[in-house]
Amino acid sequence: MDAAAPVRIGTTGVTVTCFGLGCAPLGGLYESVSDEQARATVDRAWELGVRYFDTAPLYGSGLSEQRVGEALRGRPRGEFVLSTKVGRLLAEGGRADPIFEGAPAVGPVFDFSYDGALRSLEASLERLGLDRIDVALIHDPDDHYEEARDGAHRALLRLRDEGVVGAIGVGMNQSELLVRFARETDVDCFLLAGRYTLLDGGALAELLPLCVESGIVVIAGGVFNSGILASDDGSGHFDYREATHEQSERVRRLAAACARWNVPLQGAALQFPLGHPAVACVLVGCRSPAEVAEDVRLLELEVPPGLWEELLSG
């Protein structure tokens, strides 16, 4: 694998790198991050050839967007791709999501309407200090499908047709509603988090084949399933909750199989989604320059075909 390898999103003019930097941690996800550390993280990614950066208004109530925009502002605009999301409008005086440390007192409010999507992107451009959004995604419309389909999606279609946005899609932690979006709307890509990993193949039966058939590109996020695949002992969280005994046991079996082939489990977890033809790149959240460097190293490790055969057969 080459982290800096360019991959086109369908028939659009947007090209992402095989490794994308997920910028939720730069908004203080679970622990605070300084402005200096956030800037250094983006800088290190750039040094390693990463040119795709993903953020959202939800991440630190705009803090991630501000920091990513500041870090990218001096870079040639045509050399990087930035994605952000619609579906959460930030209201002054509201309550920030408590999982983001150090976020300003601005509350994210669900709004998947046509006008809400337009206002959201306008505000994102202001926070980012950039002139355009390359990829606009509808953010987790789990309980708002009809509004998102008839409102936000229609707004994004207009912006794409006008050339304001390069590609449009949906980002979710589930595959079932993405199947509906694939069948009922015109989208270029999906950001699929945690549903096609070494532990969770939920998207394999229907969504991924449908994406291949429809020409919809999949960006794979959540490759460590909220952290459980980041260590060999099965400790930590799966899907943002404490892992079950069965899940921890599966991780330990996966780690043992990887050890037999002298491959770190984390390297296999990073590379696994890219084995499917629907998947263009992996999006990995990092909060420090060291994390970026380590994840890029793991993505570029050579993995023997025999390991994939063993993991897929098990």
Characterization of the model:
The chain has 314 residues and is α/β, with parallel strands linked by helices. It contains ten helices and 14 strands. The strands form four sheets. An eight-stranded parallel beta barrel has the order 3-4-5-8-9-10-11-14, surrounded by five helices. A two-stranded antiparallel ribbon has the order 1-2. It has a two-stranded antiparallel ribbon with strand order 6-7. The chain starts with 5 loop residues before the first strand and ends with a helix.
What topology does this entry show?
Blueprint: E1 6-8, E2 15-17, E3 19-22, H1 35-47, E4 52-54, H2 63-72, E5 81-86, E6 88-92, E7 106-110, H3 114-128, E8 133-139, H4 145-161, E9 165-172, H5 176-184, E10 189-193, H6 207-214, E11 217-221, E12 237-238, E13 241-242, H7 245-260, H8 265-271, E14 279-285, H9 289-299, H10 305-313
Parallel strand pairs: 3-4, 3-14, 4-5, 5-8, 8-9, 9-10, 10-11, 11-14
Antiparallel strand pairs: 1-2, 6-7, 12-13
Helix pairs in contact: 1-2, 1-9, 3-4, 5-6, 8-9
Uncertain ranges: none
- In total, how many beta strands? 14
Tally the helices: what do you get? Answer: 10
As a percent range, the share of helical residues equals: 25-40%
The biggest beta sheet is recorded as:
8 strands, parallel, barrel
N- to C-terminal separation?
Answer: 23 Å
Q: From N to C, what is the helix and strand string?
A: EEEHEHEEEHEHEHEHEEEHHEHH
User: Structural class of the helices, strands and pairings?
Assistant: alpha/beta
Shape: globular
Rg over CA atoms, rounded to whole Å, is 18 Å
The largest beta-sheet arranges its strands as 3-4-5-8-9-10-11-14
Question: If you average the pLDDT, what whole number results?
Answer: 96
Strand content: 15-25%
